[in-house]
Design a protein that fits this description.
The complex is a heterodimer of chains A (396) and B (138). Chain A is 42% helix and 13% strand. A 7-stranded mixed sheet of chain A has the order 2-8-7-6-5-3-4, sandwiched between helices. Chain A has 15 helices and 12 strands. In chain A, helix 7 links the parallel strand 5 and strand 6. Chain A starts with 5 loop residues before the first strand and ends in a 5-residue tail after the last helix. Chain A is α/β, with parallel strands linked by helices. Chain B is of the alpha+beta class. Chain B has one domain: Sufe protein. Chain: A, CATH 3.90.1010. Helices cover 43% and strands 20% of the residues of chain B. Chain B has 6 helices and 3 strands, in the order αβββααααα. Chain B has a 3-stranded antiparallel sheet with strand order 1-2-3. Chain B is globular. Classes of the chains: A alpha/beta (396), B alpha+beta (138). At the A-B interface, helix 10 and helix 15 of A face helix 1, strand 2, strand 3 and helix 2 of B.
Chain lengths: 396, 138
Amino acid sequence: MDKRFIYADNAATTAVSEEVLNAMLPHFREAYGNASSIYKLGRDAQKDVETAREKVAAALGAEPREIFFTSCGSESDNWAIKGTAELMAKRGKKHIITSVFEHHAVLHTCQDLEKKGFEVTYIPVSDKGLIDPEDVKKAIREDTALVTIMYANNEIGTIQPIAEIGAICKEKKVLFHTDAVQAVGHIDIDVHAQNIDMLSLSGHKIHAQKGIGALYVRKGLSLPNLIHGGGQERGKRAGTENVPAIVGLGVAIEAATRNISEKNAIITPRRNRLIDGLLKLPYTRLNGDRDKRLPGNLNISFEGIEGESLLLMLDMNGICGSSGSACTSGSLDPSHVLLSIGLKHEIAHGSLRLSIEEDVTDEDVDYILEVVPKVVARLREMSPVWEKMMKGEKYE
Amino acid sequence: MMYSEKVLDHFSNPRNVGEIENADGVGEIGNAKCGDIMKMYLKIDNGIITDAKFKTFGCGAAVATSSMATELIKGKSIDDALKLTNQAVVEALDGLPAVKIHCSVLAEQAVRSALSDYYTKQGIDPLPIVGEIKMPEE
């Protein structure tokens, strides 16, 4: 089979789509006005920013004035969590509930708040990578300021019971934030129906450029200003609007949410074929619930091998993926997500995440199913861990 | 992560992968929990390392440093092999990213561990000759 180039790491980032790029381009050289300026060039920019805001709002079932543009998903997470903490601390509420397998933008923010006198409850997840809403309910206290639970996990793609958690938070009158960076454009979201008070999203995961994100904040909830300065973003996040990026995000989110079910009808069977094909290899497991997961996500552990080697060899065969191994996480420990669902370190090291979209064709799936088993076999052949496994010896 | 061409070459075409049956010295270092294990096999005749093979569970740098270490000691005397430093492995690979230096230490220690086993099999206490086998500082 001829070598191909297959981008199967859309959970890391995506290419800017042609539609998005075409919408952005005039804003660099022609429609370059400052949205705060009074003349037509400025007014037009303002109009385009507001059109993008309407599009983001429409994609979430929100109102335009509930949308604030930020520079990325991490900024949105930081603002929502720190802002709520500051706001609620004034009312004596200094307890936050989150989960053990959040993105680091949420986890590290919560850990920082712990140092500043907040108490944080980390809800465990099941071996399928799912949060039990009852656990959230039980963790809520009189002084709980915020519940922040991710919509879909970035590594194993599991989709959390957001509507149930939203209903619990509404009943208990606790604010609810969700990091939906991985979910937007892949699942239908309705912030009002799901009782979501704040939601973070990122542009570059849905074919807009890197460096643009948004935070939805339910009307009536007034977070402290993130950046002091001019009156941009209703005075809450000053700084001249990044008009091309904002316009791009508007077009991107509209496109991403336009035909979710049609896209998923194409992606899901291909993803399932990948899962079934790869699970045929011995000593292999699927990480995360099979059904309650993002349509394009698969995360598989291959025992006896290490993830970075696997990624390098896949790269040499034209396949881009990612792993939760220590080497790729930049620390000695493998991914906290894989450990949170009960994987042993040595099994977590050998994980592979692929995140596909509809451009990965059936032929590409065939190619992946041909290449991955060969690469896994080759790495196992040179692995002393595999050797011990085959001899039935302990290898820890 | 920036790997040199040489590291990528030794990763994609590792030299001396495999086992040696009835090896004169076998050493293993690292653990699967941390994500790196190297196993080294040596054939030794009259104080000369006539063959060296390895098996490695680990990242690209772990495979490349094992491969390079076997290349550097093959045909050498035990004395020369004992002088192999992790820096020599790093230099021979045209450098390693800072976070991967510990892989080169593993390779150095895997060689020493195999030589230690060789002396033990000869009924000679390896400690005064080879010294202690250390896990690299992480």
